[in-house]
Task: structure prediction
Amino acid sequence: MTDVADALEQLRSWQRPLRAQFPIVVANPELAYLDSAATAQKPGAVLDAVQHYLTTSNANAGRGSYPWANATTAAVERARERVKRFLGDPAPDRSSVHFTSGTSEGLRTVARDWLAGRLSDGDEIVVPFADHEANLAPWLEVRQLLARQGTEIRVRELPYQDGSGDYDPAALAATVGPRTRFVAATHVHHVYGADMNVHRIRRVVGPDVPICLDAAQSIGHLPLSVAGLDVDFVVFSGHKAMALPGTGAVWARGRRGPEFRPGGWAGTPNTVGIVSLAAALDWLGAAGTDRIEAWTVALAARLTDGLSRLDAYEVLGCRSSLAADSEVQRRRSIVAFRHREIPSRDLGFILYSHGFMVRSDGHCQAGAGEADGSVRVSLHVHNTAEEIEGLLATLINLQ
Ligand code: PLP
Result:
């Protein structure tokens, strides 16, 4: 695949110094971290920001009036603005950012604190049945919660193109109707690696139906524009975007319906996590999400191409192409596959014995997904072509 080699060659001198900024990667040259979809490694700038905050102004936010407390409150507000800018928010005065512990809590908050109170008997919501469990369970909980109060809503499946591609706009058009009140979707599939072409959903559902986007696998991996996607909520995990675990956010547009204001007493925010999130978004912004995308898409294309030539392996999900105008679904930085004989969990252990850290299980995919587990390789900017060639060589030996 010369286009892959060309893409990697063009970016090599940009990527090398970035890789050098990940202390855990540099300290373990014999290991290849290939599980960024589960959680991302942290660049030194994020670790420094955490250290700096904790050693100069650690205090609670929104409480107290001494300088450390004020500095913490200001840091949280700055992080909110940083999230908006990172998402290309065209109207930051009207939108809001609510910090959570991650995507799971964020989606649950949208479900319980926003959606549940807006649905009436006979209303319908459309949600994905084979994406991450975190993007199905909260919507089913809303149905249960309302049923207990005597309100029956219908949960309909957001249809896919033949199982493992992106969403199917034609089938969606046949699913939505006058009682459709809400759509939940995923930006990049966490098993199949597909860009789900979420921008098409707006055209199908019209201007008034709120769309909630699970951006767990796209945040930090590609330029994310809320204006381009025309969605109303973006929910993501900070730890997958190189911030500390226990951090995440819900961005809410505040255009369709009243502003998103999660109820109840919020308590002390995760100030250190929020500081780390702002630093991570700064780092990703400076590195350039367009180039991170180009680099990791090229690596994933090389792996997909190499695997598809080996009879012993089955690659799940979409095919891969680097051509901008290709009809082939563009695979992002995730490649899941199975060996036709070696169980995936065993293959995961074998790969670790060769220094490759991959995930091998069912990947928390919701019920309608794969019955069997798979090995998932997920990439970020620190990964290299040499790691992918080494992995392919190992997989060839295991045929
Ligand atoms: N949604 C998707 C697409 C994911 O890949 C994940 C995690 O892997 C989640 C939601 C849940 O994220 P978290 O565990 O950070 O809440």
